[in-house]
Design goal:
Helix content: 55-70%
Number of strands: 2
Number of helices: 8
Distance between the termini: 37 Å
Order of helices and strands: HHHHHEEHHH
Strand content: 5-15%
Shape: elongated
Structural class: mainly alpha
Mean pLDDT: 90
Length: 184
């Protein structure tokens, strides 16, 4: 999460361009604003869920189970769909089960395997929280016309396809290459 509250001005990014030749000041500016906005949204969503005694992680599991409340899911599917590790999903499920929001059901085929589903209390809880969350999302996005929202989604998808470049190995510079060779 980006903790930087004071984003650099465009002029500062232009100055960086004189020191770092590969910088594209406009790209960095857009990236920092997108990161700042994402961080702010995540913080506010966490506050929203906290007001309901929940966390975003816990509610994500409830929302996944609520997509088809009559179809139980196994923990591995929940971990994959929510983007967390199996260890994390174990903790989330234990807390949700302790609160009576989910229940486990053993597999008929393999007694070591189990499935998870919402309880009546869990469904009631989701039905209480989701409408208010949807109302707030509607309010958040109300500043955009429908055509702007569609364009926004298109642009987000376009940026999203490029995310893997952030994790690519760094390209060695002549200086770093020389240092690495000297160590050999």
């Amino acid at each position: 999460m980006l903790l930087l509250r004071d984003l650099p001005k465009y002029e500062t990014l232009l100055e960086y361009a004189s020191r770092y030749p590969e910088i594209n000041p406009g790209a960095v500016e857009a990236y920092l604003h997108m990161l700042r906005l994402s961080s702010d949204i995540i913080n506010e969503v966490e506050r929203f869920f906290a007001s309901y005694g929940c966390s975003q992680g816990r509610f994500t599991i409830l929302a996944l189970l609520n997509r088809d409340p009559n179809t139980p899911l196994n923990p591995a599917d929940l971990a994959r769909r929510s983007g967390v590790t199996r260890a994390t999903i174990t903790g989330l499920l234990q807390g949700l089960e302790h609160d009576g929001l989910i229940e486990r059901e053993s597999s008929d085929d393999d007694k070591r395997m189990f499935f998870v589903m919402l309880t009546k209390k869990g469904r009631k809880y989701v039905d209480e929280v989701l409408p208010e969350l949807f109302r707030r999302i509607k309010e958040l996005m109300s500043g955009l016309a429908e055509s702007e929202r569609k364009q926004f989604l298109t642009l987000l998808d376009k940026v999203g396809t490029r995310i893997p470049v952030l994790a690519m190995p760094t390209r060695p510079t002549a200086k770093s290459y020389s240092r690495a060779r000297a160590r050999l």
